[in-house]
Amino acid sequence: MLKSSEEETSMNHIQDQNKFEIKTDEHSSELTYRLDTPNKTIEIYRTYVPDAIRGQGVAAQLNKAALAFAEENKLKVVPVCSYTASYISKHPEYEHLLNK
Predict the structure, then answer these.
(1) CATH second-level architecture of 9-97?
(2) By C-alpha distance, which of 65, 67, 73 is closest to 95?
(3) What are phi and psi for residue 72, nearest 5 degrees?
(4) Most exposed among 12, 28, 76, 100, judged by the fewest C-beta atoms under 10 Å?
């Protein structure tokens, strides 16, 4: 379980692999993206969370981190991943990041 106080959790941004990753003692979740530097966009194309820890907010944490990265770097977001598109639609504070 992700919420166990005994299990260590860590968030990492592995820029050379274009991904954000959350690792626990037993599981690894990730959000992967592509950067288009000339157009100043970030295409978020995959959020993966293992079945055993779904529903615990891990995908939301990954997306928050990616959206914060986009904002800090003045990137517009292209949400190819259906979870990311849904997350942004439920959190209007991120809509200004969309590449319209």
Answers:
(1) 3-Layer(aba) Sandwich (3.40)
(2) 67
(3) -60, -30
(4) 100
